[in-house]
Amino acid sequence: MRKWVLALALASVGASLGTAAMAAEQAEKPGDLTLARVFGSPDLSGSQPRGLRLSPDGTLLTSLRPRADEKERLDLWARDTRTGEERMLVDSKKVGSGAELSEAEKMQRERARIGGSKGIVAYDWAPDGKSILVPLDGDLYLASLDGHVRRLTNTPGGELNPIVSPKGGFVSFVRDQNLWSMPLNGGEARALTKDGGGTVHFGEAEFVAQEEMHRFTGYWWSPDERYIAVERFDDAPVKVAVRAAIGAAGTKIYEQRYPAAGTPNALVDLYVMKADGSGRVKVDLGSNPDIYLARVDWTPDGLAMLVQRESRDQKRLDMLRVDPVTGKSTVLFTERSGDRSWLNLSDAYRPMKDGSLIWRSERDGYGHLYRFADGQWTQLTKGPWVVTNLVGVDEAKGRLYFTGLKDDVLEQHLYAVDIAHPNVITRLTERGYTNSASMDSSASRFIVSRSSPSQPTEVYLADTSGKRLSWINENAIVAGHPYVPYLASHRETKFGTIKADDGTTLYWEMITPKLVPGKRYPVFFQHYGGPGTGQQVTRGWQGALPQYLVDQGWIFFQIDNRGSYNRGKAFEDAIYHAMGTVEVADQLAGAKYLKSLDFVDSARIATYGWSYGGYMSLKMLEKTPGVYAAAVSGAPVTDWQLYDTHYTERYLGDPRTDSQSYATSQAITDAAKIHDPLLLIHGMADDNVFLDNSTAFAAQMQKTDTPFEMMLYPGQTHRVGGPGISEHLWHTILNFLDRTVKDNPAKK
User: How far is Cα 360 from Cα 388, in angstroms, rounded to an integer?
Assistant: First the structure.
């Protein structure tokens, strides 16, 4: 659930076009946004390169770029950082076979939220900087810098998790549930494990690791290539969920191992073996098998592994130091949550060559950086704000680079701090934008991405002082940019705050049409509301869809409620064992604020949410009847015992011992309390939030003779979208809201 935020729903989701909808499209004036153009190619936000990386010597900047005529398809490009010359390295249409991906790779892409992408979605530089490993259409290719491409594999099953080993000796990957490797300079692939099969997997991450823990691999090379740490998981204890993927041309039945809340997880073990697969030893992860393998890293000298072991209730995290020769482990330190709280996993940490560790912790109530050395902790950043990511470390200078919200909770910036001078922090990016950044391994340069409410994402190369060296993608909205024809109608985003019922400050954003004195406008009130996900209200680019809604006469509004991320643990912990309570109350506070404005029609506030936001739509109608004129609920969880262990138990506990929190949080029991118009939407092949959630809710509505409307999308997963589908989805949503809210005389 972590990544299915409303921004994704707005950017990628939406009855064949009905007569009224088609007429409405044809009636648009030239230069007006249409849904076909919002979701068409080229992207109105401008060409957005992905997967930006610097070559090992820093002379090339590589990226994945969408094609102008097919924005879902990505090719591999390179730019010379000295001359600015650009060229396509690998054309996915010329090189790829067009073969269908394996079901395992399709599911991995769904977990990584790239299920709608085609062509090249990942790549890996060889350490010598002379070639690039390119997975494409289920097989592996090696691209040299002169454009020559050599095919490495040609198998029907496909290869998962391919990488080049740290010293460039091998290409490794998972095939047929076993770990394989092959010499990079040529030679046959060999299986390093041979007992994978059935419910047993080697080198892969189990479902909840991919879906909820941000861990997408199950093997890790030591820096010197002497050893490989390999996860083995056995899905045998995991409950089999029979899932029907209902498509337009038929139905496929999948027996998917799905660890629903309160049921057994996969059995996970960790092994260490030599590079040829010999000498395999089991790592001591403790006597309790019911734990999570959260993270695995090697120390820079390759003499030990650092393994993060998380308790099932996610209130304890042990950092283990593991001897790769014997598998013996010792506990370096332990993080513990409060009684009514949990621990958030993070990737903001770095083992150092001097044996110390840079580590992000929320132990003082906010996410901050610490140094752990010789058993002692030194806090490096401090204050009522959060560090969001550790971008880079210059060990020689003792300098850390990180992103955080120090200056403004709505603007993420890049900062620097010296280990020798804790809490003396320098901001490296310009105010007025929200930023993200990555860095080369030697911490010499940044790739900075930034956007604002009036500027789509732009990317530049910067030095360690933050000075821009060159644009990678300036993306200025000038002649030739696809958004230029619509710039004249672009409306400003305004920000503000209100208070929750306990006095907590809540941030909102709003986009309005050009207001006519005395006129009252309907509101499209978007929400997500769930925990564990980044905030929605930021000073960043929202995309063209909110502007389209405003063009149609709606006020666009959203607010970040308690329970969401990036405001500290107290703000987030308000949702502990209380889903469907404080977040509903905070959205209600937003609705009351809207109703107080003289340009808002208080009888015409519609609300929309997807995934957790879809759940929120249902709870908002159940708990606050009459407040919202209508609601759209997309792919909602309606009973949290149907959702997975790691996400759900983090916030609600184990239903075997905390049954009351599940009973009060579910949406099905109170379905009959809904009296306002409701549109329920779900993809019929959703393998994340199963369709069972919506069918169970619909059955309860029907059983109690409670009216509602429903739209199902054959073949669509949790991401409902793609050519034609996105337009259809949003025509369906807006036809419903026009009929029940905006154009309904009874609501005016």
Answer: 9
